[in-house]
């Protein structure tokens, strides 16, 4: 009867463990340790069923001690699982590091072993080790580096510097994704798929960079583009390429900078962020982007430049028409469409264009600053500019935007006054700059043009200064008199 009760109890304990393991898997709890508890139950049932009374007392003690130790170790594993791992999984506290669980298991098992051996076998293991000075010294010297790595590993796992799966960079070019942190080593997987084993003590002593702690890793590289491609257009093209790639994150936003002017190219630095960690993932994305940049440049008729030295005579026409610039005829047509130049003949327009020159500005550049001196006006050929007016120190407002066919800077040209506003490019702009020397000859042939200029300048002044209607007529007449005096002086020069 006693034998039947033993096996029924063993089967019940086994069934209970299996049911508990099934429930933990079903609810996605940490895995219940089963091997040692099942082995302890089977050993207990087997030894309890055997007639051990026939064994000599010295042997029987150690057999029973083995059974007690197995049951104790199994109880320790289940207790740590139930009291630390399960509550941490449920969010009651932070999950314990694997190394801490190993130390608790080892320490609890060692303590239980010492106590059970002393009680059952009347053998003091602690006293046996500590009474031997030579043995203690040998163990201490042999375990010096191991203990150093052990405490360093415990420090790493208890801290929040990194966890498994983070992308680390150590001194001397050691990089990789964290695979495991054991009691002795930190194992990294590098770009070549190799396992790099670094002692924990070295990890804590070196400068450590966690490249993927924020959940994204920076991918930075440079590319050289031709000088014929304006920087604003180049940056726009590169931004279009990187943003269409599915692995490039929108937040943080990609950054594209002009890095430097090289001998044969303008170098641009690209910095994008990605979720995938590791040198392999970084290299794959960089390869994809460089390949797509090549095709995007080819579609635009551009290419990746390389150092080439070509000697050839410079012809005058090489300077007359830079690539991508409107011809003289196109400039004349553009000027003719502007209200102030509609009455000019074709010959007069050509004269005006010949005395002027085309200038290009990049996004954010200022063509003129409020309060500065100037002798020219600008005609927008391509792009958009913004007129800014400073109402009070530190407070600037946007008055309006000007596009192709519109002019600005005429007040300084005709009144010899400081610039009344700041004009800044919103996008890449191409302007035709007309100065006083190129326009004063036209006023002699077409005097009515001066009155049209005066009306236009007054309208712009009213817009900037918010003139009321009562002041409009009086200031318009005074403005015309000032312009007549200014350009009358031109005739005598």
The fourth-level CATH homologous superfamily of the largest domain is Jelly Rolls
How many separate structural domains?
4
**Hey, roughly how much beta strand do the residues contain?**
15-25%
Any idea what the radius of gyration is? Answer: 42 Å
What is the CATH topology descriptor of the largest domain? Jelly Rolls
Biggest beta sheet attributes? 5 strands, antiparallel
> Which shape, going by the Cα principal axes?
rod-shaped
Read across the widest sheet, the strand sequence of neighbours is 4-3-2-1-5
| Helix segment tally | 17
Which regions contain 5 or more consecutive residues with pLDDT less than 50? 467-471
Helix content: 40-55%
Structural class: alpha+beta
Structural features, described:
This protein is α+β, with helices and mostly antiparallel strands and 493 residues long. The protein has four domains: 141 residues, no CATH class; 50 residues, SH3 type barrels (Roll); 83 residues, Alpha-Beta Plaits (2-Layer Sandwich); 166 residues, Jelly Rolls (Sandwich), CATH 2.60.120.10. Helices cover 51% and strands 18% of the residues. α1 runs antiparallel to α2 and α2 runs antiparallel to α3. The relative contact order is 0.05. About 1% of the residues have low confidence.
Secondary structure elements and pairings:
Blueprint: H1 2-26, H2 35-49, H3 57-89, H4 98-121, H5 125-130, H6 133-142, H7 144-158, E1 167-169, E2 175-181, E3 185-189, E4 195-199, H8 200-205, E5 209-210, E6 217-225, H9 231-243, E7 255-261, E8 266-274, H10 279-299, H11 316-320, H12 328-337, H13 346-354, E9 357-361, E10 366-368, E11 376-382, E12 385-392, E13 395-402, E14 407-408, H14 410-415, E15 422-425, E16 429-435, H15 436-445, H16 448-465, H17 469-491
Helix pairs in contact: 1-2, 2-3, 3-4, 9-10, 12-13, 16-17
């Amino acid at each position: 009867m006693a034998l039947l009760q033993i096996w029924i109890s063993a089967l019940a304990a086994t069934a209970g463990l299996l049911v508990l393991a099934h429930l933990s898997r079903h609810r996605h709890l940490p895995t219940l340790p089963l091997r040692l508890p099942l082995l302890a139950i089977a050993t207990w049932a087997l030894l309890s069923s055997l007639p051990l009374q026939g064994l000599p007392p010295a042997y029987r003690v150690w057999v029973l001690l083995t059974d007690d130790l197995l049951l104790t170790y199994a109880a320790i594993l289940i207790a740590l699982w139930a009291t630390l791992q399960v509550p941490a999984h449920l969010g009651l506290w932070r999950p314990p590091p694997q190394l801490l669980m190993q130390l608790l298991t080892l320490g609890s098992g060692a303590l239980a072993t010492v106590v059970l051996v002393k009680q059952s076998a009347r053998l003091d293991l602690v006293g046996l080790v500590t009474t031997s000075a030579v043995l203690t010294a040998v163990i201490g010297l042999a375990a010096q580096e191991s203990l150093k790595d052990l405490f360093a590993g415990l420090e790493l796992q208890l801290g929040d510097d990194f966890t498994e799966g983070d992308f680390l960079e150590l001194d001397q070019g050691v990089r990789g994704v964290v695979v495991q942190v054991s009691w002795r080593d930190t194992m990294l997987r590098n770009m070549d798929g190799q396992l790099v084993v670094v002692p924990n003590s070295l990890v804590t002593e070196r400068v450590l960079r966690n490249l993927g702690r924020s959940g994204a890793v920076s991918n930075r590289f440079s590319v050289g583009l031709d000088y014929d491609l304006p920087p604003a257009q180049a940056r726009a093209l590169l931004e279009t390429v990187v943003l269409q790639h599915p692995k490039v994150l929108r937040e943080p936003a990609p950054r594209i900078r002009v890095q430097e002017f090289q001998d044969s190219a303008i170098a641009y630095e690209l910095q994008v962020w990605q979720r995938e960690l590791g040198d392999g993932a970084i290299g794959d994305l960089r390869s994809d982007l460089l390949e797509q940049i090549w095709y995007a440049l080819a579609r635009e008729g551009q290419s990746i430049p390389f150092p080439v030295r070509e000697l050839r005579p410079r012809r005058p026409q090489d300077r007359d028409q830079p690539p991508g610039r409107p011809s003289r005829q196109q400039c004349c047509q553009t000027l003719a469409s502007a209200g102030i130049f509609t009455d000019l003949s074709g010959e007069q327009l050509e004269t005006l264009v010949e005395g002027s020159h085309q200038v290009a500005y990049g996004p954010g550049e200022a063509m003129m600053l409020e309060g500065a001196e100037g002798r020219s006006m600008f005609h927008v050929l391509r792009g958009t500019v913004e007129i800014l007016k400073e109402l009070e120190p530190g407070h600037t407002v946007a008055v309006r935007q000007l596009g192709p066919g519109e002019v600005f800077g005429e007040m300084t040209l005709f009144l010899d006054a400081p610039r009344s506003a700041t004009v800044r490019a919103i996008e890449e702009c191409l302007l035709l700059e007309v100065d006083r020397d190129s326009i004063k000859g036209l006023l002699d042939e077409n005097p009515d043009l001066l009155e049209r200029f005066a009306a236009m300048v007054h309208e712009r002044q009213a817009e900037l200064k918010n003139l009321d209607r009562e002041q409009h007529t009086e200031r318009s007449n005074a403005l015309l008199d000032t312009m007549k005096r200014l350009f009358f002086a031109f005739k005598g020069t």
